[in-house]
């Protein structure tokens, strides 16, 4: 059970990944993203999650370089976008991401979405980057069980991470169980459901009062106690600090079970079986 912001989970290849990081989806490149990343690193975050399609890799890289924290102490994730999927194009996309980030390597490179007919070749490219020691770990994002099973038929490596939408309204229990069995670290994007209704839900308001925390902190703690890596996004310094202040309390088994009853399989993002971008 993580008890500190610096705590890590060990991926199946031995690489240590922080349990909590900063997500920067829809954070504008330039001052906005630089300020968010700088605030997070100053407050002790060591994991930053970006993607080519977010259009802010350059700002993320600048903030990392300006942070004064040695590169090897940080964990940087980026992702290959759908238009760049395929073997050669994914290899090229990775080099372009590194160039924008101004870094020699990423700690984790993910396939952003399971593009039909493309993701297997893309995975071969990621395996190549990994075997060439260009990246420390490789994984996928938005993959259902059947996508992971399909990948298995022609791959050498099991993905180290699967990053998907997950929050109390979409708890993803079957997928989490599958990933656990396969040694794939499960990671949540939109852990707070982008602030929609969850933060005002009666249960979280009650639990927040009980533990002396905020509803957001209760939800993020639920993630951590389920063994889920989580990357809440914020551009507000106080919220960035608040999101990380979740290591000094523990939800009871009873309260965890109560939160589990909220699942309705409701998504705020696209279904990985039905997306057109």
Automatic annotation (TrEMBL):
The active site is at 54 (proton donor). Substrate binds at residue 112. One of its GO terms (molecular function) is oxidoreductase activity, acting on the CH-OH group of donors, NAD or NADP as acceptor. Belongs to the aldo/keto reductase family. It comes from the Bacteria. The record marks 79 as: Lowers pKa of active site Tyr. Residues 20-263 form the NADP-dependent oxidoreductase domain. Keywords: NADP, Oxidoreductase. This is Aldo/keto reductase.
């Amino acid at each position: 059970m993580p008890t500190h912001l610096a705590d890590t989970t060990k991926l199946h290849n031995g690489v240590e990944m922080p349990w909590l990081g900063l997500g920067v989806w829809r954070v504008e490149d330039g001052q906005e993203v630089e300020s968010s990343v700088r605030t997070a690193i100053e407050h002790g975050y060591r994991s930053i999650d970006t993607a080519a399609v977010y259009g802010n890799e350059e700002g993320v890289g600048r903030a990392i370089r300006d942070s004064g924290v040695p590169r090897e102490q940080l964990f940087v994730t980026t992702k290959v976008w759908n238009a760049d999927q395929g073997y050669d194009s994914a290899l090229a996309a990775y080099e372009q991401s590194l160039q924008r980030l101004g870094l020699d390597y990423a700690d984790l490179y993910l396939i952003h979405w399971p593009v039909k007919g493309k993701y297997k070749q893309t995975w071969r490219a990621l395996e190549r980057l990994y075997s060439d020691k260009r990246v420390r770990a490789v994984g996928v994002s938005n993959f259902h069980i059947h996508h992971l099973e399909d990948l298995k038929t022609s791959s050498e490596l099991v993905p180290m991470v699967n990053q998907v939408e997950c929050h109390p309204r979409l708890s993803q229990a079957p997928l989490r169980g599958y990933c656990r069995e396969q040694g794939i670290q499960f990671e949540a994007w939109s852990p707070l459901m982008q602030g929609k209704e969850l933060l005002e839900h009666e249960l979280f308001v009650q639990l927040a009062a009980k533990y002396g925390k905020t509803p957001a902190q209760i939800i993020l703690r639920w993630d951590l106690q389920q063994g889920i890596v989580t990357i809440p996004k914020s551009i507000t310094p106080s919220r960035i600090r608040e999101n990380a202040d979740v290591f000094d309390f523990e939800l009871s088994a009873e309260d965890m079970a109560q939160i589990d009853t909220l699942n309705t399989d409701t998504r705020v993002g696209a279904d990985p079986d039905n997306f057109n971008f």
